[in-house]
Design goal:
Layout (H helix, E strand, L loop, with lengths): L7 E5 L4 H13 L8 E7 L4 H13 L4 E7 L24 H4 L5 E5 L22 E5 L1 H4 L4 H5 L8 E9 H6 L2 H8 L7 H9 L6
Parallel strand pairs: 1-2, 1-4, 2-3
Antiparallel strand pairs: 4-6, 5-6
Helix pairs in contact: 1-2, 7-8
Length: about 210
């Protein structure tokens, strides 16, 4: 039986714990007071004592919210050469969320450096029937001439930014999209996993 909650997911390494804490604070301080709220933090390796102490402060302040920390062995991505050099392998964790969080129907993914300025509760109720992803159109990518040809898409009208996503985990898991994502990441697209998600989910993006 699927867990009815819609987890909010962030992926980090030890260097991004402070940024993630700020993102979570901005998220919870602006709303999301649902008593079923769940924050899932995917971290490379183990979280430090200082990191745990920081998260403990948030747990006490927002006692209605459950925090779940999942350690990820990212050796699965050892073959990947990221094209965006400032990124680390943690950006790729969103590609395997359908497998890691297969007990949930949907999730909201946030980049760990996101500053939330309003209540995002409405994202919990988006109808994801028949679509893999919902997100915000990436206008900068749309302005890149000929980029659709570079990545093999008919057009970029549906191309979304991967920093904030609503993900239909149930449908992705059923159709084994993570396997497809991992196969595509070998193609060394300019925008790495963001391109992979847009290519693989083309035609089923909201």
């Amino acid at each position: 039986m699927k867990d009815a909650r819609v987890p909010i997911v962030l992926a980090i390494d030890e260097n991004y714990i402070l940024q993630a804490a700020v993102a979570i604070y901005s998220l919870l301080s602006k709303g999301l007071t649902n008593k079923e709220s769940l924050i899932v933090i995917l971290i490379k390796g183990e979280i430090s004592k200082d990191g745990l102490s920081l998260l403990e402060i948030l747990k006490k302040k927002y006692a209605y919210c459950e925090f779940k920390i999942i350690s990820v062995d990212d050796s699965i991505f050892s073959f990947v050469e990221l094209q965006t050099k400032r990124l680390t392998n943690t950006t790729l964790y969103r590609l395997i969320l359908p497998e890691i969080l297969n007990q949930y129907k949907q999730c909201i993914y946030l980049d760990a450096d996101t500053l939330v300025t309003g209540d995002i509760s409405e994202l919990l109720d988006i109808d994801m029937s028949g679509v893999y992803l919902a997100g915000v159109i990436d206008k900068k990518i749309q302005e890149k001439k000929e980029y659709e040809k570079e990545i093999g898409l008919p057009h970029l009208k549906e191309y979304i930014n991967a920093g904030i996503l609503v993900m239909n985990l149930e449908l992705m898991c059923k159709e084994e999209k993570s396997k497809e994502f991992l196969a595509l990441i070998n193609n060394k697209y300019l925008f790495d996993d963001q391109d992979v998600l847009n290519i693989s989910c083309y035609g089923h993006i909201k």
